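Quick question, first post here. What does this chain look like in 3D?
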Amino acid sequence: MEYKIIVKDLIRESKGKLIQGDENLVFENLCKDTRIIKLGQIYLGFQGEKFNRKYTI
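> Answer (accepted):
Ran it through. C-alpha cells below.
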C-alpha cells in the first residue's frame, strides 16, 4: 500500500513547526537520519536522548 502525505497535514497533526521548506510538499516516507535520506522521503527531526537535541518538529 502506498501513502502520500502533505507536509502541512503532518504539521497540523503533530502540532509541529515547519523550520524550512514547502508546506504543500507531498512525500511518501519519513526519514530520521539525514545521512540515508532518499528521494520521496522527508526528514523529521526528533528530540530525545538518542536523537540530536538541536532539532525539533
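Strands lie at 5-6, 26-27, 29-31, 41-43.
The two ends are 26 Å apart (CA to CA).
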